[in-house]
Amino acid sequence: MFLVISACSVGRPADDADGDEIYRQLCVSCHGADLSGGIGPPLGHGSNAARQPDEFLEFAIMMGLGSMPSFSSSLDEHQLDRLVDYLREEQKG
Ligand code: HEC
To answer: CA-to-CA distance for 60 and 54, rounded, in angstroms?
Structure first.
C-alpha cells in the first residue's frame, strides 16, 4: 500500500509547492538545474523560451511538445502559474 501511494505521488508536486520546487521536481532532469538545457532546450535568460508568450510555455507544459511529455495530469492551474512565474523570474537573468 505504501509503495502504491508513493508511486502515485511521484511527479505530483504538493498543492502549495512554489515554482522553484515544481521546476526541480518535474523539469530539472531535462532542462538543467540552471535552466541551461540538456535533453530539452534551454529555458533561461536569452533562450527561445524567454521570447515566447506565456501561452506558449503553458501550452508546451500542459500539452507536451515533441518528445517532451505532457504535465496536465501533474499540475493544476495555480501550480502552472507559479511555474511560469518562476521561469519568467529566472529569464530576467
Ligand atoms: C523528459 C524530458 C523533459 C522534461 C521532464 C521536460 N521537458 Fe520541456 N522539453 C523537452 C524537450 C525534448 C523539448 C523540445 C521539444 C521540441 O521542440 O520538439 C522541450 C521543450 C520545452 C519548452 C519549449 C522550449 C522552446 O524553446 O521551444 C518549454 C517551455 C519546456 N520544455 C518547459 C518545460 C517545463 C516547465 C518542464 C517541467 C514541467 C519541462 N519542460 C519538462 C524535454 C523535457
So the answer is: 10
42 vs 46: CA distance, rounded Å: 9
32-88 residue pLDDT tens: 999 999 999 999 999 999 999 999 999 999 999 999 999 999 999 999 999 999 999
Contacts of 43 (CB under 8 A, 6+ apart): 27, 31, 35, 37, 49, 50, 87, 90, 91
- CB 49 near ligand 1, within 6 Å: yes
Q: Which amino acid is at 92?
A: K
Whose C-alpha lies nearest to ligand 1, atom 7? 68
Interval 2-27: pLDDT, tens: 555 444 445 689 999 999 999 999 99
